Each structure stands twice: as structure tokens, then as C-alpha cells.
Amino acid sequence: MRLKTTTLFVLSLIAWLNATAQQTVNMKFGKPTKEELQMTTYADDSSAAAVVLCRLTDVNFTIQQNGYLVDYHEKIRIKILKPEGVRWANMTIPYYKTDKDKNKLKVSKFSLMTGDVNGNFLQSGSFVDNAMGDFGEESVEDLKVVAYNLEGSKTKKSTLKKKDVVKEQLNDEEYQLRFTAPDVKVGTVIECEYTVHSDLFYMIHDWYAQCEIPVVYAKLYMDVPCYLIYHMEEQGIQRLNCQCITGSMNYKLESDPLAAPVNVRTNRYTCVGRNLKGIARDVNVWNVNDYYAGIIMELKSFSLPNTMMMDCVKSWEQVDQLLLDDEDLGKPLSHHSPLRQEIADAKMTEIASLKERTEAVCQLVASRVKWNGKYALWPRSTEETLKEGSGSNADINMLLIQSLKDAGLDASPIVLRSRDKGLLPHNFPSLRKLTTFIVTVENGSSPIYVDASMGGKTNLLPATLLVERARLLQKGKKSHWVNLRHVTSATRR
Q1: Residue 2: is it exposed, middle or buried by C-beta count within 10 angstroms (0-12/13-18/19+)?
Q2: If you count DSSP H runs as helices and E runs as strands, how many of each does the chain have, helices first?
Q3: Rounded distance, CA 331 to CA 477, Å?
Q4: For residues 49 and 188, is the Cβ–Cβ distance under 8 A?
Q5: How far apart are CA 132 and CA 266, in angstroms?
Q6: Tag placement on the chain: N or C end, fewer CB within 10 Å?
């Protein structure tokens, strides 16, 4: 009996040791283990061409007198297992940068629109402007990329050189650093470390633990001052292990450098993903991020030291009102079209059929302005668009709405997030996630839908705009959700 008991204990101990070994992760960067260097396959997925062995993301905040700085410290270790996995040596680091003089921070500023005790939004020149200060950019710092190869009994290190890092501008506000880790082949362990230094505390990065290849271990750690409260939404097929505990941090007021540090309570969030499956990109999936295990966040409320807490936008109805009151999107909806005289001369208001009248106006606009291939949310002035002869879908759609109204039609914008950019959050409102808008014309039980990208055609939308949740904005009426999935698609995927 004693022998059986001893045997059972030994077997249990071995099982525990094996389980513990599988849970052990090398979190020390700068020296891969012998096991990592000698690894040839990933046990949980023998078909994997590469695997993320460890990813650590630490997000830290610095309190300032008129705002906050955010540092995203990123570390990632990747093992190359097969020839097709070598492409993971090609890396990009996205970051955001804008010029306030060109008014590129509209969405960011709206993110900080707050209400007083009566629910009225605070306007320009208020506490909101102080919180924004001169902020508006991010920078990538302390980039370090090393490739480790086992050659015999020795480990060879190859380090990325600064001259091999390329800075690219993707649009007015989005940039990226692009580079390739050196000397990467089957068997290589790549380590990449960097920090994104950000002024944009109101635009916290979404974090995805999962990617195209398996991930053994991923961890997000955030130490957030109690002055900042964020909506958080977990998403993905596989779930993360998330928890929040109370912590503290010290900060010193810039205005009084001789004063003693002030201790502030913090919320410390930890989200961990283990043994996450790789989810390959698929032409039939618009945005694979929607299926990755991850965390998306949006600023809920905030304050500065020694000020009262202020709520940010709390409902989609408030988002509606912000958009309708906006100088670039909402206010021009009531303006006359620069094509007003041409519409009158063509006697379009006399066309009895609302559908035929809509088509006539759309064809007129399409003959005067061409789509430049870009989707946008914020339009420029319709006079400028007409003079230029081309524009984004937002530019031309605003001209369409004004022209349709001058033709006696009830036209309104429908704001949405295009499918290639991902889904809108389900648990909280988000103006920042909206990316564009289309046009709808009231026509009884059969509303007419139009987008400038379709060259004047009605009830035909590009597939990327056929979303299930889009927001119809109406002045003087209640805005509401509409489903665009039933509209005819211009392309099929």
C-alpha cells in the first residue's frame, strides 16, 4: 500500500512539474534560452512557420499639470521555425502624429468633450483645451532589434542598424517605422524592444494578444492614475485572463518643483493570454482583428490634479449631437449647394419620382466631381470640393446632401465604421472609431442609399461599407441605428 501511495505521489509530482514547465515563460530579454535557440517545432501547432514566444506590453502614465503622457513599452520574442516564417523578420511600428495648425485633432478633441452638471458640453477655451495643451503626437524611441542564431555551441548576435529603419507617412496622421531584422533564417530567435511615447492619453492603443502565428504568452500591464477612467471591452474567440487591483504612484507638480511628491491611487490592469492559436488573414474576413483576443479602450471620464472628475461622451445620442453641431460635418448640412442654380435651371424639383430625382442629382454631382479613392469622415467645404473637381467620399457626399436638399429631397448622413477598419464597440459609444459616412434619401418604406465612391449610382454601395451597425443622423428627428447589409454590394468577397 505504501509503495502504491509513493508511486502515485511521484506520478503526480511529475505531472505537476510538466505542467509547470509548460507554464514557464522566459521574460528576460537580451539572452534567449538554450531551449528557445534549439527549438524546431511548436508542440501545440506543428504546422506553425513561426511562433511568438513572449510578448510584454507595459503601459505607464506620467501626470502633468495640464495633461498626461503615456509610454507603451513593448517587448516581443519570435522564433522562426520554417522557411515561410522568415517573413516575420519584416516589422512595422505604427504611431500617430498630427499638426494642430491644420486642425487634424478633431476626433481627439471630441474625445475630450465633457458635460457640466446639466449635461451641456463645455466649449472651446475651457478646461478641455487646457487638458489637450499642445499635445498631438507620438514618437518611437529606444528601438532595439537583435537576431540570435545558434552556430555550433555559440550564439551569434546580429543587431539592426539605425540606417536600416525607414520612416513612412501613411496619411495625414498615421506614420510607421519599417525595418527588417538582420540575418534571419530558420532557427533564428528575434527580439524587438521599443517605446512609443505618446501625448494622446485620450486615444489609448487597442491591444491584441493574438496574431497570425501562435502566441505562447502575451501580457498587458497598465498602471492608470485614478484621474483617468477608461471603458474597456474584451474581444476575440479565445479569452484572456484579466484582473484589476489598486496601486499607487508618486508625481511632482511642475509648477512647484520644491514640493514633496504627491501620492495618487492607480488602477493596475493585467491581461494575460496563453497558448493562443494563430489566426491567418483571409480574403473573406474584412478585419481579422475582430477575431483576435484583445482589449479595446475608450476614455470614459477624466480630471486633472485638484479638479473635479468630468464625464466624456456617455451615449450614442451625445455622439449624434456632437456630429450634428460640428462646423465641418453637421452645420454644412443646412447650407445651400454651390450647384443650386444648376439644379433649379434643370427643373429637378419638378421630377415627380423621388428615386428619379435622386438619380438626376447624383448624376449631376458625379459629372462635376470625381472620387479620389479615399474614404473620410470630415468633409471640406463644398465650394472647395467643386473647385478642385475631386475629393474624398465625405467631400462629395456633403455636396450630394446639399444638392439633394436643394432639389427638395430629405437627405441625411449615415455615419459608420468601414468593415476593413473593424467593428464598432458594443459596450460603449465611440466617435473615434467612426471612419466615414454615406447618404440616405427618405423614400417612404424604401430609403435610397448613395455613396460618392459609386460614381452617381444609387442603392449600390462598396462592400466595405455594408455594415450591420450604422448611425443615421437627422436634424430635428431622433437619430437611430440602421443595417446596411441588405443594400446591393458593388463587389463581392
Answers
A1: exposed
A2: 9, 24
A3: 15
A4: no
A5: 21
A6: N
